[in-house]
Amino acid sequence: MREFLVGPAEAIAEGGRLVVDCDGTEVGVFRLKGRLVAWHNLCPHRQGPVCQGRIYARVVEPVAPDGTTRLLAYDEDERHLVCPWHGYEFDLETGRCQGRDAMRLRPAELREDGGVVYVSV
Amino acid sequence: MDAKPIPAARPLPVQEIDVFTDTREVLRHAQQGAQKRSFQDWLICDVDAHHVETVNWHEMVRYIEDPVIRHQAMLFHQEKTGGAPYGLNGDAGLKYQDVGGRIPHQAGVREPVDDKSVHRDVTLTRRAMQSLGVDYMVLFPTPMLTLGLHPQPEMEVHLSRAYNHWLIDNVLKADSRIKTLAYLPFNTPREAEAMITEFADQPGVIGFCVPSVRHKALHHNDYMRCYAMLQELGKPVAFHAAYHWQDPSLATVNRFLGMHALGFAWCNMVHMTNWILNGIPERFPKLKSIWVESGLAWVPFLMQRLDDQYLMRPSEAPQLKRLPSEYMREHCWYTTQPMETVNMKALQVTLEMINAESQLLFASDWPHFDFDLPQEIYDLPFLSEQAKRNILGLNAAKLFGLDPRPVKTL
Questions:
Q1: From B52, B59, B115, B164, which residue has the greatest number of CB atoms within 10 Å?
Q2: Residue B40 lies in a domain
Q3: For residues B192 and B194, what is the distance between their CA atoms, to the nearest angstrom?
């Protein structure tokens, strides 16, 4: 594994990202709930550029006690990274694919030192 | 000794892909995958890709043959505000394919194009071919795929003929690697026959297309002259699937996911059932039919279903001399997309049942949300290299009479 300097941690704002090329290996670094996470920019479905996709809150459909439904809603606590190729959705915090738990984003090793972010790939 | 400096990562120029992102950037990983697999040496024919013809509708209406309708259409586009494309039926706003903005290239390919020497659609198609590693791309329209439901049969004729001419003049003549299956207005069989005669030898026309969404039975006697002509010419006829929310049999489906999953398979399942049980392959044994954009999982289901039922009621399909599935695997070709891959064992059985080595044709369906890449075929673990080469390009070359040597530069 080789380590690469990504940049100052403060450059990645809450809800933001920085997708970088580490000598041919692409990684996305995201800030979520104050914490940084890093994923390889390869969708496990078909190798799409998942880290360059849009981020959505998970869509839920509340069910009333009588079993009926009325509206859809966003679960703002769970952010999804959506692959722009085919729409596969991944929990930005855990990397899990919605609907297929075994399919996950590949994490990149992340280190923050003195306010600077590094990834190892 | 000094420690080695840590190399700096390079930020990607596009941090978030949107509708304005260049196709080559959206598909950059696809091109890398094509290079990694040495697709330079593989003939790859993409038998189903799309452009959005309504973007150019104001240009296209100038090709309408009828002078009165043409005049009306041109005024419509010059003067009407907030109007849909002139004369086009369809689902208006019921188009949720981009999953609420999650898949931008489905919502719109709005990237800048500087090259003014060719039509914008030529450049966009070239960019897609380059990125996917494709030698030949067969271009289909998009909203016009429900034109078969038009309440005015004559409008299907006006618009489809204008579209065919517009596409040839503006796109196909500019690049011999871009092909089409010319639209046939099947609600008016005499006009469809005239179009076969008119377009069979036009540049880039390698066959004909009948959009599958329609309520006319393909086995009606009115179509037999069309089939005879196509058989004589050796030009395939493709039945291109679509969905539409007005289908009474799908009236209870409320989610687009369900509508798309069923609609694109259902129309071709109905047509195929009629096609086989009425003995079209017996009547026109050399007619080549292609079943486009219904995926593949429906085929083994229908084979099993029709075989079982036929053996109990052969008197109702007296033209058949063999099982329905045998006609389906010898007289019919299928495009791959959207290839169902979650259950690979099921896919393997499907490919065996349809005799994929000779009957299956790669299709990307780019730029739609469920597009496939050539590498999906290349990476299948249960196919021989020859089978992969056939599916990716050689079957299409044989079917359409294309040069089997790769012409692309990756």
A1: B164
A2: no
A3: 5
The per-residue pLDDT for range A9-24, each reduced to its tens digit, is 999 999 999 999 999 9
**Contact in structure between B142 and B52 (CB atoms under 8 Å):** yes
Q: Please report residues of A whose CB lies closer than 8 A to that of B11.
A: 7, 18-21
CB-based contacts of A48, cutoff 8 Å, min separation 6: A42, A83, A84, A85, A86, A88, B29
Residue B235 DSSP symbol: -
Question: Would you call A48 and B29 a contact, using CB atoms and an 8 Å cutoff?
Answer: yes
Strands A116-120 and B45-50: unpaired
* Rounded (5°) CA angle B61-B63-B64: 70
- ipTM of the complex model: 0.98
Mutate to test the interface with B, among A55, A86, A119 (most CBs of B within 10 A): A86
**Pick from B28, B102, B373: CB nearest A54:** B102
Burial (CB < 10 A; 0-12, 13-18, 19+), residue B160, is buried
- Which residue numbers of A have CB closer than 8 Å to B's CBs? 2-7, 17-23, 26-27, 41-42, 46-49, 52-54, 56, 82, 84-87, 89, 118-119
C-alpha angle B194/B234/B180, rounded to 5°?
65
B316/B365 Cα distance (integer angstroms): 37
Residue B3 lies in a domain: no
> Measuring CA to CA, which residue among A29, A87, A91 is closest to residue A53?
A87
- The reply to whether the predicted model has a pTM over 0.90 is yes
Sign of torsion over alpha carbons B77, B109, B241, B408:
positive
A4 with B7: CB under 8 angstroms?
yes
CB atoms within 10 A of CB A56: 18
State which CATH number among 3.40.50.150, 3.40.50.2300, 2.102.10.10, 3.30.830.10 fits the domain covering A3-120: 2.102.10.10
Position B1 scores a pLDDT of 57
Q: How far, CA to CA in Å, does B291 sit from each of B29, B156, B266, B269? A: 29, 21, 12, 10
